[in-house]
Amino acid sequence: MTAGLVLAGFVAFLLVAVFFDATRRKAPNAMVVAGALGALAALALNLNPVELTAARAALGGLLALALLLPFYGLGSMAAGDVKLGAVLGLWLGPQLMLATWLGANLLALLHALLVLSLSALRHRAPMPPPGPTDARSPGRKIPLAAYMSIVALAFTLWRHLPVPP
Protein backbone atom coordinates (compact mmCIF):
# COMPACT_ATOMS: atom_id res chain seq x y z
CA MET A 1 0.00 0.00 0.00
CA THR A 2 2.80 2.44 0.84
CA ALA A 3 4.46 1.83 -2.54
CA GLY A 4 1.11 2.60 -4.16
CA LEU A 5 0.94 5.91 -2.31
CA VAL A 6 4.45 6.84 -3.44
CA LEU A 7 3.53 5.96 -7.03
CA ALA A 8 0.33 8.02 -6.74
CA GLY A 9 2.35 10.94 -5.36
CA PHE A 10 4.79 10.74 -8.26
CA VAL A 11 1.95 10.61 -10.78
CA ALA A 12 0.31 13.60 -9.07
CA PHE A 13 3.61 15.50 -9.21
CA LEU A 14 3.89 14.78 -12.94
CA LEU A 15 0.31 15.91 -13.60
CA VAL A 16 0.85 19.15 -11.66
CA ALA A 17 4.05 19.77 -13.65
CA VAL A 18 2.17 19.23 -16.93
CA PHE A 19 -0.57 21.62 -15.81
CA PHE A 20 1.77 24.44 -14.78
CA ASP A 21 4.05 24.22 -17.79
CA ALA A 22 1.27 23.75 -20.33
CA THR A 23 -0.85 26.61 -18.97
CA ARG A 24 1.69 29.05 -17.54
CA ARG A 25 5.04 27.93 -18.97
CA LYS A 26 6.35 27.79 -15.41
CA ALA A 27 7.76 25.14 -13.10
CA PRO A 28 7.18 26.72 -9.67
CA ASN A 29 10.01 26.28 -7.20
CA ALA A 30 7.64 24.92 -4.55
CA MET A 31 6.53 22.17 -6.93
CA VAL A 32 10.12 21.32 -7.88
CA VAL A 33 11.21 21.20 -4.21
CA ALA A 34 8.21 19.01 -3.33
CA GLY A 35 9.14 16.65 -6.17
CA ALA A 36 12.76 16.49 -5.04
CA LEU A 37 11.76 15.83 -1.42
CA GLY A 38 9.35 13.13 -2.60
CA ALA A 39 12.10 11.47 -4.63
CA LEU A 40 14.50 11.56 -1.68
CA ALA A 41 11.86 10.20 0.70
CA ALA A 42 11.01 7.39 -1.73
CA LEU A 43 14.70 6.51 -1.94
CA ALA A 44 15.15 6.61 1.83
CA LEU A 45 12.14 4.31 2.31
CA ASN A 46 13.22 2.06 -0.57
CA LEU A 47 9.91 2.78 -2.35
CA ASN A 48 11.11 4.40 -5.57
CA PRO A 49 8.67 3.45 -8.37
CA VAL A 50 11.51 2.27 -10.62
CA GLU A 51 13.43 0.56 -7.81
CA LEU A 52 16.55 2.73 -7.92
CA THR A 53 19.47 2.87 -5.57
CA ALA A 54 20.50 6.26 -4.27
CA ALA A 55 23.58 6.19 -6.51
CA ARG A 56 21.49 5.51 -9.65
CA ALA A 57 19.06 8.27 -8.67
CA ALA A 58 21.93 10.73 -8.21
CA LEU A 59 23.35 9.68 -11.56
CA GLY A 60 19.94 10.31 -13.14
CA GLY A 61 19.80 13.81 -11.65
CA LEU A 62 23.34 14.59 -12.80
CA LEU A 63 22.62 13.26 -16.28
CA ALA A 64 19.58 15.52 -16.51
CA LEU A 65 21.71 18.50 -15.54
CA ALA A 66 24.37 17.54 -18.09
CA LEU A 67 21.73 17.25 -20.83
CA LEU A 68 19.78 20.40 -20.01
CA LEU A 69 22.23 22.99 -18.62
CA PRO A 70 23.96 23.66 -21.97
CA PHE A 71 20.62 24.63 -23.52
CA TYR A 72 19.84 26.89 -20.58
CA GLY A 73 23.27 28.51 -21.01
CA LEU A 74 22.48 29.17 -24.68
CA GLY A 75 19.18 30.81 -23.74
CA SER A 76 17.05 28.21 -25.50
CA MET A 77 15.62 26.69 -22.32
CA ALA A 78 14.20 28.10 -19.12
CA ALA A 79 15.57 27.31 -15.66
CA GLY A 80 12.35 25.55 -14.69
CA ASP A 81 12.94 22.94 -17.38
CA VAL A 82 16.40 22.25 -15.97
CA LYS A 83 15.18 22.04 -12.37
CA LEU A 84 12.30 19.75 -13.26
CA GLY A 85 14.61 17.60 -15.36
CA ALA A 86 16.98 17.13 -12.42
CA VAL A 87 14.08 16.08 -10.20
CA LEU A 88 12.84 13.65 -12.84
CA GLY A 89 16.36 12.23 -12.99
CA LEU A 90 16.17 11.56 -9.24
CA TRP A 91 12.91 9.70 -9.71
CA LEU A 92 13.80 7.83 -12.91
CA GLY A 93 17.54 7.15 -12.92
CA PRO A 94 19.87 7.58 -15.90
CA GLN A 95 18.32 5.19 -18.44
CA LEU A 96 14.75 6.40 -18.11
CA MET A 97 15.93 10.01 -17.81
CA LEU A 98 17.75 9.73 -21.13
CA ALA A 99 14.69 8.12 -22.74
CA THR A 100 12.47 10.82 -21.20
CA TRP A 101 14.72 13.58 -22.55
CA LEU A 102 14.71 12.04 -26.02
CA GLY A 103 10.94 11.55 -26.00
CA ALA A 104 10.32 15.08 -24.74
CA ASN A 105 12.55 16.52 -27.45
CA LEU A 106 10.63 14.57 -30.07
CA LEU A 107 7.38 16.04 -28.74
CA ALA A 108 8.97 19.51 -28.70
CA LEU A 109 10.05 19.07 -32.33
CA LEU A 110 6.53 18.07 -33.33
CA HIS A 111 5.18 21.07 -31.39
CA ALA A 112 7.55 23.46 -33.16
CA LEU A 113 6.74 22.04 -36.59
CA LEU A 114 3.02 22.33 -35.92
CA VAL A 115 3.34 25.94 -34.72
CA LEU A 116 5.47 26.91 -37.72
CA SER A 117 3.14 25.15 -40.15
CA LEU A 118 0.04 26.78 -38.69
CA SER A 119 1.74 30.17 -38.70
CA ALA A 120 2.73 29.78 -42.35
CA LEU A 121 -0.79 28.73 -43.30
CA ARG A 122 -2.33 31.60 -41.36
CA HIS A 123 -0.08 34.20 -42.95
CA ARG A 124 0.23 32.50 -46.35
CA ALA A 125 3.90 33.24 -46.20
CA PRO A 126 6.90 30.96 -46.38
CA MET A 127 8.05 29.46 -43.12
CA PRO A 128 10.65 31.57 -41.30
CA PRO A 129 14.20 30.31 -41.46
CA PRO A 130 15.21 28.05 -38.59
CA GLY A 131 17.26 29.63 -35.89
CA PRO A 132 17.68 29.80 -32.15
CA THR A 133 14.75 31.06 -30.15
CA ASP A 134 15.00 32.74 -26.80
CA ALA A 135 13.12 30.64 -24.25
CA ARG A 136 12.44 33.79 -22.27
CA SER A 137 10.57 35.59 -25.08
CA PRO A 138 6.79 35.48 -24.63
CA GLY A 139 4.74 33.53 -27.11
CA ARG A 140 7.65 31.40 -28.38
CA LYS A 141 8.05 28.95 -25.54
CA ILE A 142 7.77 25.21 -25.95
CA PRO A 143 6.55 23.48 -22.78
CA LEU A 144 9.51 21.11 -22.44
CA ALA A 145 8.89 20.50 -18.73
CA ALA A 146 5.35 19.38 -19.62
CA TYR A 147 6.67 17.13 -22.36
CA MET A 148 9.29 15.60 -20.03
CA SER A 149 6.54 14.99 -17.48
CA ILE A 150 4.21 13.41 -20.07
CA VAL A 151 6.93 11.02 -21.24
CA ALA A 152 7.91 10.19 -17.64
CA LEU A 153 4.23 9.56 -16.87
CA ALA A 154 3.92 7.25 -19.88
CA PHE A 155 7.00 5.26 -18.80
CA THR A 156 5.77 5.06 -15.21
CA LEU A 157 2.27 3.91 -16.13
CA TRP A 158 3.61 1.47 -18.69
CA ARG A 159 5.79 -0.05 -16.00
CA HIS A 160 3.06 -0.27 -13.34
CA LEU A 161 -0.22 -0.90 -15.12
CA PRO A 162 -1.24 -4.52 -15.60
CA VAL A 163 -0.88 -5.83 -19.12
CA PRO A 164 -4.05 -7.45 -20.50
CA PRO A 165 -3.67 -11.05 -21.69
From TrEMBL:
Residues 10-112 form the Prepilin type IV endopeptidase peptidase domain. GO terms for molecular function: aspartic-type endopeptidase activity. Keywords: Membrane, Transmembrane, Transmembrane helix. The chain crosses the membrane at residues 30-47, 59-79, 99-121, 142-161. GO terms for cellular component: membrane. The keyword Plastid does not apply. It comes from the Bacteria. InterPro entries: Prepilin_IV_endopep_pep (IPR000045). This is Peptidase A24A prepilin type IV.
